[in-house]
Amino acid sequence: MSHVRSYLRSLGRSRDSMRPEHRPAAFSLRGRQWDLLETVFAPLHAGTTEIVLDLLGLTETEPQPWSGTFLEIGCGTGVVAVTAALAGCERVVASDINAEAVANTALNARRHGVADRVRAVHSDLFAGLPDGELFDTVMWSSPYVRAPDGYRFTTPLERAYVDPGYAAHERYVAEAPRRLAPGGRALLHFSSRGDLARLRRIAEREGRQLEVLRRHAVVDRGDPVEHFLIDIRS
Ligand SMILES: C[S@@+](CC[C@H](N)C(=O)[O-])C[C@H]1O[C@@H](n2cnc3c(N)ncnc32)[C@H](O)[C@@H]1O
């Protein structure tokens, strides 16, 4: 396995992101201030949150007014969900399996005056959402590095970095399209640090098609990495 895909390397990044110098109580991203709680994915350390904003067209430089309803799975600090609300989405649901990420998103929604439109929910993927709640956009910036099947998480933060056996990806690929309102889009942020061939096999098994809508190439700590915005179709 190439070193960029190594789950041990990703777990090392997770540990590194817990160092106090990477854990300011608040940070600045895209001209806004954001709270960061203890065990939550740190956007500045990881660098992927801004890439997700760009892939979605949620940027200040090329404003693309958003509307409709937006579900963010795995919201972390809530930067993407809150930005979607600020860009015009009328109803945003932000969920995370890490309870502290849910609290963090609620804090940032209040900080930016959109608490009335952003509902933060503690949930394993879709499990904590009411049956039949549908969205125009469903999005997950996933922990795209695959860990071995039996890997047991040692901290809540590790779930932001790796997915053992791609079990969570498999559920997401199967379930995300079922949460769409007519004409909606089920999206996934993935990268070449993950195993796209394996994800495609999972999609095929689940009767889904994957289409890469947008790509964004970066050099990540010396390694060329490509980020993808993937549309999951049934
Ligand atoms: C790569 S981080 C992205 C965080 C945030 N969206 C951002 O871009 O800064 C992935 C997030 O997915 C969450 N996550 C992992 N497995 C999950 C699951 N089964 N259900 C819900 N959230 C999950 C993690 O806790 C983490 O917050």
List low-pLDDT spans.
Answer: none
| N-end to C-end Cα span | 31 Å
Q: Total number of helical segments?
A: 7
Strand order of the largest sheet: 5-4-3-6-9-11-10
Bound molecules: S-adenosylmethionine
Give the percentage of residues in beta strands. 25-35%
Q: What is the second-level CATH architecture?
A: 3-Layer(aba) Sandwich
- What structural class should be given to the helix and strand makeup? alpha/beta
The percentage helix is: 25-40%
Overall mean pLDDT = 96
Main pleated-sheet profile: 7 strands, mixed
Any idea what the radius of gyration is?
A: 16 Å
Shape: globular
- The ordered H/E elements are HEEHHEHEHEEEEHEHEE
> What is the CATH superfamily label?
Vaccinia Virus protein VP39
Q: What is the CATH first-level class name?
A: Alpha Beta
Could you say what the CATH topology is called?
Rossmann fold
Q: What is the number of domains? A: 1
User: How many E strands?
Assistant: 11
Pfam families: PrmA (PF06325)
InterPro entries: N5-glutamine_MTase, SAM-dependent_MTases_sf
Organism: Streptomyces tremellae
Protein name: Methyltransferase
